[in-house]
Amino acid sequence: MSAELLRFDEALSRVLQSASAYARTHPVTERVLLADASGRVLAGQICADQDQPPFARSTRDGFACRAAEVNQTEWLAIAGATHAGQRPGGPLPAGAAWEIMTGAPVPAGADAVAMVEHVERSGDAVKLLHGRRLAAGENIVPQGAQAREGDVLLEPGVRIGPAQIALTATCGYAALSVFARPRVAILTTGDELVPVEARPEPGQIRNSNAPMLAALVAQAGGAPWLLPAAADTPEALDAALGQAAQADLLLISGGVSAGKFDLVEPALARRGAQFHFTRVKMQPGKPLVFGELPRNGAVSLPFFGLPGNPVSSAVTFLLFGATMLAAIAGAPSSEPPFALAQLAGDVKGKPGLTRFLPARWQPHALGGTMPTVTQVPWQGSGDQAAFARANCFLVVPEEVSGLQSGAVARILMM
Ligand code: AMP
Ligand code: MG
């Protein structure tokens, strides 16, 4: 067992490297209805089944015409009308205009649409208002301008959200092929844990990491598989780890610090674990463990030993676990969601450790240039009330002893 203490960025690059090796090690696919596809990872290509738009489409209510004619400011006779949903009308006769609605097909022969607000109408004729000009192509999206029939519009690996659902619906896909969600075993450990429904006796606490990690896993695209909480004994841990062997990823919470009852690492070692690191220069989350368990004839099982304090478990999962999970889930491996924000208030650091402090970011008021971020006062990594008031983590780099109000800082979104 190596006891490697890594810098945060080194630990992250080891996980990213490993994640690319695990990419698509769970290539099982399934079909889901469009209504159930949000958040899933696309497993097949999406192609345009016809040109997009399928006909030259007006983007305005107005009059289709020839720009060269309408710019003469002569009256053009209204030769017909088409509204959205009607078959294309026309062709447009010479010296004429065609009344048209937004979304309707433009008649053959027309090369522009004059907005209804920009014309004057008299009986069955229209002309441009004084001083208005119309350019050829204005207010018309030509057939196939967005995509040609057969074009590949989305590749496997894309995470499906509202925009992808709109596109696939337009292309006639009522169901999509997606990668099955990886099964993520969640093993909470600790003699002090009782189920949520129980009233803790003195010295006991409710097991809040189990539902929290399940929520984090689901949010990151995995299928949480909650194992019964294990006591702090070698026997209980051996049995639990044996059960977890069927998972695609294993998260263990608690038992990885240096205490007398921190028995998780020895239990992993007994199962032949290879450890990639066992300590990270970060706070919270220093005791984080990352490695893989061998499996007969199958891809090895990556695991994270997360420190048991709720905020430590959450931040180490968001930084490392979610990254690995995304790769296994078929999405291209990506860095954790960092962003920049301007600090409101001074913040203390701790040279030698990258700190992740519960914080709140807010969109900057109009006129500002970037979001602002404020630290949430907290009592350390067991402070769930402070965590629940946060919407991000403020990152204080390892090298500094603090950050000053007004500085631009990194935040980890969640
Ligand atoms: P450990 O990492 O096992 O040393 O635990 C660190 C702290 O986190 C202790 O105060 C534990 O009681 C607490 N803790 C461990 N597991 C959980 C859990 N599943 N839910 C809530 N708190 C926990
Ligand atoms: Mg413990």
Concise account of the structure shown:
The protein has helices spanning 8-22, 67-70, 162-170, 209-219, 234-244, 264-270, 310-328, 384-389; strands at residues 5-7, 29-33, 46-47, 57-58, 62-65, 76-82, 96-100, 112-115, 119-122, 125-128, 140-141, 152-154, 175-179, 183-188, 193-194, 205-206, 223-226, 249-253, 274-277, 279-283, 289-293, 301-306, 338-343, 347-348, 354-362, 372-375, 392-396, 402-403, 408-413.
Relevant terms:
single chain, alpha/beta, Molybdenum Cofactor Biosythetic Enzyme, Chain A, Molybdopterin biosynthesis moea protein, domain 2, Molybdopterin biosynthesis moeA protein, domain 3, 4 domains, six-stranded mixed beta sheet, 20% helix, binds adenosine monophosphate, binds magnesium ion
Provide structural commentary.
The protein has 414 residues and is of the alpha/beta class. The chain folds into four domains: 173 residues, MoaB/Mog-like domain (Molybdenum Cofactor Biosythetic Enzyme, Chain A, 3-Layer(aba) Sandwich), CATH 3.40.980; 53 residues, Molybdopterin biosynthesis moea protein, domain 2, CATH 3.90.105; 85 residues, Molybdopterin biosynthesis moea protein, domain 3 (Molybdopterin biosynthesis moeA protein, domain 3), CATH 2.170.190; 76 residues, MoeA, C-terminal, domain IV (Beta-clip, Beta Barrel). The protein has eight helices and 29 strands. It is elongated and about 95 Å long. Bound molecules: adenosine monophosphate (AMP) and magnesium ion (MG). Magnesium ion binds next to loops. Adenosine monophosphate binds next to α4.
